[in-house]
Design a protein that fits this description.
This protein is 47% helix and 13% strand. It is built from 19 helices and 16 strands. The strands form 5 sheets. It has a 5-stranded parallel β-sheet with strand order 2-1-3-4-5, with helices on both faces. Strands 9-10-13-8-14 form a 5-stranded parallel β-sheet. Helix 2 packs parallel to helix 3, helix 13 crosses helix 15 and helix 17 packs across helix 18. Keywords: ATP-binding, DNA-binding, Nucleotide-binding, Phosphoprotein, Transcription, Transcription regulation, Two-component regulatory system. GO terms for molecular function: ATP binding; sequence-specific DNA binding.
């Protein structure tokens, strides 16, 4: 036998299900001797309850049991944990039932009386296959990142997101302050966390603060902390977010909502890396990398006197704009698949994917709430879904009618498709030929030439987008 424990920890957790007490106790004793953590259950319902509380790495179950046989247990376990290996134990001569079990998704089957060496070998192989699948998924994730298709958990391969990845990878190792802009729900917080994970501060804290959620008096205390007696109710010293983030990263969401008086103090911290707690006089030194985010136009706020110009330039050392979901093309399906897998596991459902109508509905929606809206829609769809695939009625979204001039596929010529793609993309980018060219992977000159052919000027599209 190979070594059964690593650093004193059990090799894996095995759930043994058998209605015969002697068989259960015998397998439990032998498996524990081999270093496995073992749970036992006398029947299927008890096994499901145990699996819900302590997810097993492998399940070994008898086929013939009262209340719930092994095949039904297998199906219910698959709904809870789609990838957990199940080894079926059958009586000699039940080969046809064993074959049915394998077709239903069992990973292996053994006949009674169980040969213990064969059982441990089957368990080891099942665990090895599970580990290989996990390693393969991790390698695929790393490959996607290496090829520019992903960045520390962010999902998407569109040209718009590739630009975000490139800037994020460049800025992550530096100390420079980063300003992330974009509409609500585009994933600004996720990008901030990804930059932190790629930075030399990855082992330090990542502290967040939503600046719009607090009143001015509370915001200052949250940022800088306060001394005992600083104000009514301050019965002890409190450490603020800057001190909590020392040695790591502080993410300030909706930084554009910070009131002017607090803006002055924030500017001082960025310039001098010191501050005083509310009600205190002693300077506190901190080593913090600041990442800020906003859905406001800070440059416009500076021009109109609502935001300090010097603080704006301190925050905007490196600017990253998160694109809205409507400009990310097929990323919406990648994200939808990701959320489907996640919520299916959380809700213990087995859902294989989407109907064609559901997929078309997802692609047709403009997602004004961006990734956050998509995530909420998929969670609701998973909860409501009663079949093996999500259908269009499960999705809580209303799709607007096709835009004027939209083409039908199949049925349209390539010229018609190209025309619609260019004009629709220009509408989505508010008439920006540069952004449209980037999304369509063609040159700006090509777009300008096509617009001339269509009898439409770029200025007209820009005015329409602004309106």
């Amino acid at each position: 036998m190979t070594d059964t424990k690593i650093a004193g920890k059990p090799r894996a957790r095995v759930l043994v299900v058998d209605d015969e007490a002697s068989a259960r106790s015998g397998l439990e004793k032998l498996l524990r001797q081999e270093g496995y953590a073992v749970d036992v259950a006398p029947d299927g319902p008890t096994a499901l309850q145990i699996a819900s509380d302590r997810p097993p790495d492998v399940v070994v179950t008898d086929l013939k049991m009262p209340r719930m046989d092994g095949l039904e247990l297998l199906q219910k376990l698959r709904a809870m944990y789609p990838s957990v290996p199940v080894i079926m134990v059958t009586a000699f001569g039940e080969v046809s039932t064993a074959v049915q079990a394998m077709r239903s998704g069992a990973d292996d089957y053994l006949t009674k009386p169980v040969d213990f060496d064969a059982l441990t070998l089957s368990i080891e192989r099942a665990i090895e296959r599970t580990n290989l699948k996990a390693e393969a998924e991790e390698l695929r994730r790393q490959l996607r990142e290496r090829e520019g298709e992903g960045f520390e958990g962010l999902i998407g391969s569109s040209a718009a997101l590739q630009k975000v990845y490139r800037v994020a990878k460049q800025v992550a190792p530096a100390r420079a302050t980063v300003l992330i802009t974009g509409e609500s729900g585009t994933g600004k917080g996720e990008l901030a966390r990804a930059i932190h994970k790629k930075s030399p501060r990855v082992n330090g804290p990542f502290i967040t603060l939503h600046c719009a959620a607090l009143a001015e008096s509370l915001l200052e205390s949250e940022l800088f902390g306060h001394e005992r007696g600083a104000f009514t109710g301050a019965d002890k010293r409190r450490v603020g977010r800057f001190e909590q983030a020392n040695g790591g990263t502080l993410f300030l969401d909706e930084v554009g909502e910070i009131p002017p008086a607090t803006q002055v103090k924030l500017l001082r911290v960025l310039q001098e890396r010191t501050f005083e707690r509310v009600g205190g006089n002693e300077p506190v030194e901190v080593d913090v990398r600041l990442i800020a985010a906003t859905n406001r136009d800070l440059a416009k706020d500076v021009h109109e006197g609502r935001f300090r110009e010097d603080l704006y330039y301190r925050l905007n050392v490196v600017h990253v704009e998160m694109p809205p979901l409507r400009l990310r093309g097929s990323d919406v399906l990648l994200l939808a698949d990701h959320f489907l897998r996640r919520f299916a596991v959380e809700n213990k459902k087995r859902i294989d994917g989407w109907s064609d109508r559901a997929r078309a509905k997802i692609l047709a929606h403009r997602w004004p709430g961006n990734v956050r809206e998509l995530e909420n829609a998929i969670e609701r769809a998973v909860v409501l879904c009663e079949g093996s695939k999500i259908d269009e009625e499960d999705l809580p979204i209303d799709v607007a009618p096709l835009p004027k001039g939209a083409v039908r596929i199949p049925g349209a010529t390539m010229a018609e498709i190209e025309r619609f793609a260019i004009l629709a993309t220009l509408d989505a980018t508010s008439g920006s030929t540069t952004k449209a060219a980037e999304m369509l992977d063609i040159s700006v000159r090509t777009i300008q030439y096509r617009l001339h052919e269509y009898g439409v000027s770029a200025k007209e599209k820009e005015k329409k987008g602004a309106g």
